[in-house]
Design a protein that fits this description.
By secondary structure, this protein is α/β, with parallel strands linked by helices. It has helices spanning 20-31, 43-53, 74-88, 111-136, 160-180, 219-231, 241-252, 254-267; strands spanning 11-15, 35-40, 64-68, 93-96, 143-149, 186-192, 236-237. It starts with 10 loop residues before the first strand and ends in a 5-residue tail after the last helix.
């Protein structure tokens, strides 16, 4: 049985680090003694996190770095990993946390929006891992955390792009876990339900459906649960009892989930 994973001096890359889960994970990892590079498009938010990480003196100035850019841009991804290696001297943990959603029927959703969601939530996630793997193989107790969703297990109407992407992330995690097992690289799938993020404020198109429910789990609780699972080398973690119940029902009583969804969506106003 392997020992518990420690975060002290771990060299970490987190995408989507300007807000939400990515930012919270970066902050918590810094608090636990890791050295972190974050990336996102909003440089001003990344610099704010940098300022907070260096407020305690010069000793902390080599623990946090950032590089602003679009993670869906192949050229940026190819430049990102050399930047990480230059700043941190190696790579032990990769967390592709960047993501977004869109609401609307597939028929009415512009093709470029569907492609944009799948590109950010799935393709870019896989590509970041791909370019990082040669360095992770040389890392100290290396690991990858992929951010999934309960909607990858039970897709909802009007969420086709997001559900398709997150179902892909679930499969990606399973495939990578087998591929990398003998190379000593752990793969953790964090399957999330509603959490306190800017997800609904940052939709590519559309608005939250009136039937969409679920009390959001706090970012603090979500981060603590993910990092505890990483420490204990779990394969998958589902923070919050509501998310656990949703996945259990989706796996064991799919007929019930279909019935509930049909009732919810048929009684809701037709906004799309």
């Amino acid at each position: 049985m392997k020992r518990q994973r420690l975060f002290l001096n771990k060299r970490v890359l987190v995408t989507g680090g300007s807000s939400g889960l990515g930012r919270s994970l970066a902050q918590e990892l810094l608090a636990r003694g890791a050295r972190v590079v974050t990336t996102a498009r909003r440089e001003e938010r990344l610099s704010t996190l940098y300022q907070r990480s260096t407020d305690h003196g010069e000793a902390e100035r080599d623990t946090y770095f950032y590089k602003a850019g679009d993670i869906t841009d192949p050229d940026f991804r190819e430049k990102l990993i050399p930047y990480v290696i230059d700043r941190l001297g190696g790579l032990d943990l990769v967390i592709p946390a960047a993501g977004c959603g869109a609401i609307g029927s597939l028929e009415t959703m512009p093709a470029n929006v569907f492609h944009s969601i799948v590109n950010l939530d799935l393709v870019s996630c896989a590509e970041v891992v791909r370019v990082a793997l040669p360095h992770l193989k040389k890392g100290n107790d290396p690991a990858i955390v992929l951010i999934g969703s309960i909607l990858g297990y039970c897709p909802l109407p009007l969420h086709s792009a997001y559900c398709a992407a997150k179902a892909g992330v679930i499969s990606l995690a399973g495939s990578l876990r087998h591929e990398l097992q003998e190379q000593g690289i752990d793969v953790l799938l964090a399957t999330l339900g509603p959490i306190e993020t800017e997800f609904w404020d940052a939709l590519e198109i559309g608005e939250r459906p009136v039937w969409s429910k679920g009390k959001p789990l706090s970012l603090e609780s979500t981060c603590q649960t993910i990092l505890k699972a990483l420490e204990r080398r779990y394969y998958e973690v589902i923070p919050g009892w509501q998310a656990k119940a949703f996945v259990f029902a989706a796996q064991h009583t799919p007929w019930l989930m279909r019935f509930i969804l049909s009732r919810l969506t048929s009684s809701a106003p037709k906004l799309f």
